[in-house]
Amino acid sequence: MTDQNKLTPWTPGPYKIARLNLQGIYMNDGSVTILGQDDAGEAIPIAQVSATVDFPRGKGHALVDPQRDATAHLIAAAPALYEATAQLEGWIARVLEPSFTDRKPMPENLCNALDAARAALALARGDQ
């Protein structure tokens, strides 16, 4: 568990994607489960991503669904993305401080990146 995870209200990462439920049985409905860990290190379900394509009854466990998988990977990456964004936000904010820039104008795209990072972090925290 990272220091950032200790400061956030959500289940600490890392998250992983599972095609099996917690009992080790394949998910036959075409979904995948995102797993995190509780305080004892036991796997707990965080989210379930449903299939986005049709499949024959009873064949959901073997389903190839790129959109479902991409969504699951994005959710599983959320803790790492939050931490990386928080680090970048801190670095960009320091770069934009007048003492660092010697009062020279900074590129607008750097200011926009800082605003975007702050908005994304606020969204993740539920501040918006």
Topology:
Blueprint: H1 3-7, E1 16-18, E2 32-37, E3 43-49, H2 66-76, H3 78-95, H4 98-101, H5 108-125
Antiparallel strand pairs: 1-2, 2-3
Helix pairs in contact: 3-5
Total of DSSP H or I helical runs spanning 4+ residues: 5
User: What's the Cα radius of gyration?
Assistant: 19 Å
Approximate strand percentage: 5-15%
The shape, in one word, is elongated
The residue-averaged pLDDT reads: 82
Strand order of the largest sheet: 1-2-3
Q: How can the largest sheet be summarized?
A: 3 strands, antiparallel
- Spell the H/E element sequence: HEEEHHHH
How many extended strands?
3
Portion of residues in helices?
Answer: 40-55%
Q: Return the structural class.
A: alpha+beta
Overall tally of structural domains: 2
Distance between the termini: 26 Å
Low-confidence stretches: 1-5
What does this structure look like?
There is one protein chain. By secondary structure, the protein is of the alpha+beta class. The protein folds into two domains: 3-76, no CATH class; 80-125. Helix content is 44%, strand content 12%. A three-stranded antiparallel β-sheet has the order 1-2-3. Helix 3 packs across helix 5. The chain is elongated. Residues 1-5 have low confidence and may be disordered.
